[in-house]
Design a protein that fits this description.
The protein starts with a strand and ends in a 6-residue tail after the last strand. It has two domains: 131 residues, Barwin-like endoglucanases; 97 residues, Immunoglobulin-like (Sandwich), CATH 2.60.40.760. By secondary structure, the protein is mainly beta. The longest helix is centred in the N-terminal third of the chain and has 10 residues. 10% of the residues lie in helices and 36% in strands. The strands form three sheets. It has a six-stranded antiparallel beta sheet, with no helix packed on it. The protein has a six-stranded mixed β-barrel with strand order 3-7-4-6-5-8. The protein has a five-stranded antiparallel beta sheet with strand order 13-14-10-9-17, with no helix packed on it.
């Protein structure tokens, strides 16, 4: 991990990427997350389906297209973390050697499963039919799905979105007095622990509040763009700052892509 700041200039726009070094406790947390742990898993939707539309994280139709397509998953509240776990990536593998492949599937948290096997503090993954079937050896996808709930092992893994940079989706209903953003395609940790926004001509970073799922908002105004956005990851406190990423003439339901990512 690098410390300090890197400055990159694109078309006259200065974009700053700051990677904050983890403290010893952060390193210990990362090491623990890399260990395989026990959980249970089920599947939903059609047998070869890509998963549900939208989900509690608020990614909407993004879950229906690559790179999220067929990699989405709902997790129990202990992993959902009231939405702060949205965007995190996990490797999941089943255990029966007679039917299970040694290769895990990688899933991205896009939804929450609050009841049933997900309740009572259990660690549970409710996967798309396609993702669940991929844990099986060749030709046994259907037989594995027929088992319903199965024991699995899981661990955190880095999120990777080749060719993608961090993007900010302006949520529907946003105005100059209530601005809500959702983060997309975040490499590395995948999660968001805090977000700040800076208005045009200002040096002040204003804190955004976590609303629901992967969405954050700020109330005030009138707010004036272009807006710079700074996000800090939940898991390792890495920070990324994108200057003027949201233009002056922004629109609700639009997505604005930065020129950088964590990897």
């Amino acid at each position: 991990m690098r410390s300090g700041g890197d400055f990159v200039v694109f078309a006259g726009i200065l974009i700053v990427l700051v990677l904050v070094p983890s403290f010893e406790t952060g390193s210990a947390q990362q090491a623990a997350e890399l260990k395989w742990k026990p959980a249970t898993a089920t599947w939903y939707g059609s047998p070869e389906g890509d998963g549900s539309d939208g989900g509690a994280c608020g990614y909407g139709s993004l879950v229906d297209v690559r790179p999220l397509k067929a990699r989405v998953g709902a997790v129990s509240p202990v992993l959902f973390k009231d939405g702060e776990g949205c965007g995190e990536c996990y490797k999941v593998r089943c255990l029966d050697p007679s039917i299970c492949s040694r290769n895990p599937v990688t899933i991205i948290v896009t939804d929450e499963c609050p009841g049933g096997y997900c309740a009572g503090g259990n660690v549970h993954f409710d996967l798309s039919g396609a993702a669940f079937g991929r844990m099986a050896v060749a030709g046994e996808n259907g037989q594995l799905r027929d088992r319903g709930v199965i024991p699995v092992m899981y661990r955190r893994t880095k999120c990777t979105y080749p060719g993608k940079n961090v993007a900010f989706h302006v949520n529907e209903g946003s105005t100059n007095y209530w601005l809500s953003l959702l983060v997309e395609f975040e490499d590395g940790d995948g999660d968001v622990g805090s977000m700040q926004i800076r208005q045009a001509g200002s040096e002040e970073w204003m804190e955004m509040k976590h609303v629901w799922g992967a969405s954050w908002c700020i109330v005030g105004g009138p707010l004036e763009g272009p807006f710079s956005v700074k996000l800090t990851t939940l898991s390792t406190s890495k920070t990324l700052s994108a200057r003027d990423v949201i233009p002056r003439d922004w629109y609700p339901k639009s997505t604005y892509t930065s020129r950088l990512n964590f990897s």
